[in-house]
Design brief:
By secondary structure, the chain is an alpha/beta fold. The chain contains 14 helices and 11 strands. It has a 5-stranded mixed β-sheet with strand order 3-2-1-4-8, sandwiched between helices. The chain has a 4-stranded mixed β-sheet with strand order 5-11-6-7. A two-stranded antiparallel ribbon has the order 9-10. Strand 9 and strand 10 form a beta hairpin.
């Protein structure tokens, strides 16, 4: 088996060493530099990494990644698209050996996107990564939030491998280019549901709520928009914009994707703000009853941390269900041990039970 690890880069000198350390077992390492002015290229070459220069104007991510992919030698079996701020965990190569034996063209793996602590030791959002692929028959598509797609006669096969990639983001980098590139992506393919959702979400992040509302609704009307978790996410964002009908939108989100905690917790929060304690407790408990955490990018950490237990505890306390309040309150503290508000609430719950 031969493996190539490749990426595009722009002023990533602080990541070159850890990137190389994690990927050095590969047979071929490639950085496609897109115009760095720091020491990215110098450091990469000093470590023996192959470096090519890629010029893409006007900029779009898919063209740069396709240029880097085209430069990988023909005898490679698997290509790993590993961004400069990502690292492969030890043992990755033996896992790919298994995938190759099964003739998998697209191995899937666990990807950790962010972290709960500053030291980056407690995982936050985790989902199934999909940026490992066979050398031929794949290309990158879309100006931003680009994805790998098979083409030609490629018959894609996927399987899960016990491989992990961790992301250690550079938060200093701006995301200002995302919005115009997403607008371009939607213009190029108006029927693409994934781009419609991402574009609507980016408009929301920029505070352009009316435009976001229209795009989320358009997303829901698309023929390709069949993935229930993403449809539910659009409904949840609409609820954040249309506050007067938030309850209705969140109920639709729950119906759209049963088994997801996020809309249940957000509906419980809505009832909490209105001091409607019975439905607040009801939906917080429904969220807690869901124990299987989905491994996709829409699985949000707030729904799997202390929040649902905190809401359930407060609602139960107000309903004078003190034993339940204490039980939920203890679990909330267990999940967020440094949260002073939760610790203070726990004192009240214990006092209520004791009296």
């Amino acid at each position: 088996m031969k493996v190539a690890v490749y990426t595009i880069a722009l002023n990533e000198e602080q990541f070159v060493q850890p990137w190389w350390d994690s990927a050095k077992e590969a047979d071929y390492l490639l950085i496609a530099d897109t115009g760095s002015t720091d020491k990215t290229v110098e450091l990469a070459k000093s470590l023996g990494i192959n470096v090519i220069n890629v010029l893409v104007k006007p900029w779009r991510f898919d063209m740069a990644r396709n240029a880097s992919l085209a430069a990988i030698p023909a005898d490679i079996d698997y290509c790993i698209a590993l961004d400069m701020d990502e690292v492969l965990l030890p043992g990755w190569r033996s896992q790919l050996e298994k995938a190759l034996a099964e003739k998998t063209t697209r191995p899937r793996y666990q990807y950790t996107w962010n972290w709960k602590d500053a030291e980056k030791t407690i995982p936050g959002l985790q989902y199934g990564g999909d940026k490992i692929h066979s050398r031929f028959g794949y290309k990158w598509k879309h100006p931003v939030h680009e994805v790998l797609v098979p083409y030609g006669e490629t018959k894609e096969t996927q399987s899960w491998v016990g491989l992990e990639i961790h992301h250690h983001a550079d938060d200093s980098k701006p995301r200002s280019q995302y919005l115009p590139l997403l607008a371009q992506a939607v213009q190029e393919d108006p029927e693409d549901d994934r781009n419609a959702f991402y574009y609507a979400r980016e408009l929301y992040f920029y505070g352009r709520f009316q435009e976001a509302l229209e795009e989320f609704k358009r997303h829901l009307e698309l023929r390709r928009a069949t993935w229930a978790p993403e449809r539910a996410a659009s409904l949840r964002y609409i609820a954040k914009i249309d506050l007067e009908d938030a309850e209705s939108w969140l109920l639709k989100a729950i119906a759209q994707a049963p088994g997801r905690r996020e809309p249940l917790v957000e509906l419980a929060q809505t009832y909490y703000t209105k001091e409607l304690w019975e439905p607040c407790l009801e939906f917080a408990k429904k969220a807690i009853e869901i124990e299987e955490k989905p491994l996709d990018y829409l699985c949000e950490e707030f729904a799997w941390g202390s929040v649902p237990y905190d809401l359930a505890a407060i609602a139960a306390y107000n309903l004078k269900q003190y034993d339940a309040a204490l039980q939920f309150g203890e679990k909330a503290v267990d999940l967020s041990q440094s949260d002073q508000r939760l610790l203070t609430n726990l004192i009240y719950y214990r006092a209520a039970v004791a009296s």
